[in-house]
Amino acid sequence: MQRHYGLDWLRIGAFAILILYHVGMVFVPWDFHAKLPGAWWVAVPMMASNPWRLALLFLVSGYASRALMIRNKKPWRFARQRSLRLLVPLAFGVAVIVPVQPWVELGEKFGYPHGFLYFYWHDYWRFGMLGPLLLPTWNHLWFVGYLWVYTLVLALAAGLLPATVTATAQRGFAWVMRGPALLALPIAWMVLVNFVLFPGARETHALVDDWVAHASYFPAFLFGYALACAPATLAAFVRQWKPAAALALAAYALVAGIEIRWPGNTMPAPWGNIFSIARAVEGWSAVTALIGYADSHWNRDQRWRPMLTEAVFPFYIVHQSIIVLAADSLRPLALPGWAEFALLVAATVAGCWAFYLTGRAIGPLRPLIGLRRHASRRTHVDPRPALV
User: Fold this and answer.
1) CB neighbours of residue 364 within 10 Å
2) In a domain, 349, yes or no
3) So where does this one cross the membrane (predicted)?
């Protein structure tokens, strides 16, 4: 398989949006680990990416997993390689990067009286509840944990299912997902998940009880895995990206209008149902438009692409802890909202770059932040698929 540079650019862009999204979480009324005074309307622009960014990331991860499966030849080798690349930074993140988040949250919301070092040694490793929080925790790193579980399920299926079964499934996918079904079936599935299978359910990111998330993200992961060997489906994305983009914009306009009219999940029936359906339509339509546009316009390399692709995982590992610490530091200053937002973005970007550049330069730290143990000698060419 050749590397798909367009999906690399989508992945880079999606994680950049994720950083802005998590900065926005500090200001919206939704629950988050650290809060600053904000306004309800901040949720409106955030809903432009909320329905699709995670589905897109799981889809791109599934696409990359197909390339890695082909490279490793054996499912067990694929599982071993992915486990090392995912579990090591996950463990490092839980042990070193994440703990400041529950410490700030407990102090801000529940009056936790102790400093960070006391919290870390006496409370963080309690493997139980402290107030409303279960400690230790993985917080935003749930994505890495879920991706590892999906990887193991995929490797197990690849090892146990006969080749004829997997080949038939691949041909069926390529045949079905080449026309109108490319838009209709995933949207119908998301509506089914939200209204029939798990009505009113919310994601918990706790793995064992998060069936609504698994029903949304595992199919996206498998879709990406199948898409990697379905050129006809990829061509269908290119054909349909313009109508899909129009549909996504129309659905977002409806979502935004309902949120403006009834902010904070206060919409009466039947507007709550219309809101959820519009989010499902926006979500998959945006994914379709973005993949089609990326394949037709962005599938080319640029000088900064290898470094940015490599930096994405370290940025993801550290960004939320930087946001939470920075927000906690800004609270006593009582600055205007626009200044707080600008400072949070600047601090987060600067901190992420410092974390990445320092970690990549120190050999023993590289695996801890999700990088290969040894840097590639060919810095201008990166033939390996994206890992997260």
Assistant:
1) 8
2) yes
3) 12-32, 38-63, 84-104, 141-163, 175-197, 217-237, 244-262, 274-294, 306-326, 338-357
